[in-house]
Automatic annotation (TrEMBL):
InterPro entries: Lipid/polyisoprenoid-bd_YceI, TTHA0802/YceI-like_sf
Family affiliation: Belongs to the UPF0312 family.
Lineage: Bacteria, Bacillati, Actinomycetota, Actinomycetes, Kitasatosporales
SUPFAM superfamilies: YceI-like
Domain Lipid/polyisoprenoid-binding YceI-like: 44-213
Protein name per the record: Polyisoprenoid-binding protein
Species in which this protein is naturally found: Streptomyces inhibens
Compositional bias ranges of the Polar residues kind: 1-17
Region: Disordered, residue numbers: 1-25
Length: 219
């Protein structure tokens, strides 16, 4: 979720597959996955920003969807393929970097009605547990802090595969999603519509489209 450590890397447009993607088996009774392909992913990974997106979507005026993303963030990920429960992640987002494509709307979002970026410049996710649900799916639980309020959230995390790129880096793809109620974090601003309903939905979908590279390039 953006769950990866910050690192500048070259923009890579072409990749070649390491090999066919093999589905992961479910963990055994002790929670230990035995598939060698899953074990091979064990280690520290870093985000490739040009090919990743930390975003959100929210219903506007009950009829359209507004989408945005955060451009400035730091994060770390350690993935343990033999013991997925030992995997951990942290993501620190600078909320002032929000971009919805409309400058006036972005200014409103970082103001006191929403993120109040001057008082609370960072939004933070720290994982507390990871469960391998079988195949290529995981459930990651963690604490999400917004505006100084910390509450638990649960991410659906899917592994998309891995490749070896022309620069000698092993690259892995992940998608993670969750839906939160923004009012739980003090984001209560809204306007009511004459026909009923709210201008901005209280439900917000968080989306993490991640391309990660192993911290040390392959020889």
């Amino acid at each position: 979720m953006g769950i990866f450590s910050r690192r500048q890397s070259a923009t890579i447009e072409q990749t070649q597959a390491v090999g066919p993607r093999t589905p992961f088996p479910a963990a055994d009774a002790t929670g230990v996955a035995l598939d060698p392909a899953l074990r091979a992913l064990t280690g520290q990974w870093t985000i490739d920003r040009p090919h990743s997106r930390i975003g959100f979507s929210v219903r506007h005026a009950m009829v359209t969807t507004v989408r945005g993303a955060f451009a400035d963030y730091d994060s770390t990920l350690y993935f343990d393929g033999a013991r997925p429960s030992q995997s951990r992640a942290e993501l620190v987002i600078r909320v002032a970097s929000v971009d919805t494509g409309v400058e006036q709307r972005d200014a409103h979002l970082i103001g006191t009605d929403f993120f109040d970026a001057r008082r609370y410049p960072e939004m933070v996710f720290r994982s507390t547990s990871t469960i391998h649900e079988g195949a290529e799916s995981f459930r990651m639980t963690g604490d999400l802090t917004i505006r100084g309020i910390t509450r638990p959230v649960e991410l659906q995390l899917d592994y998309l595969g891995s490749v070896l790129d022309p620069f000698g880096y092993e690259r892995a793809g992940f998608d993670a999603t969750t839906t939160i109620d923004r009012t739980d974090w003090g984001l209560v601003y809204n306007q009511r519509l004459e026909a009923g309903g709210a201008m901005v939905s209280e439900k917000v979908r968080l989306q993490f489209d991640i391309s990660a590279i192993r911290s040390i390039p392959l020889a």
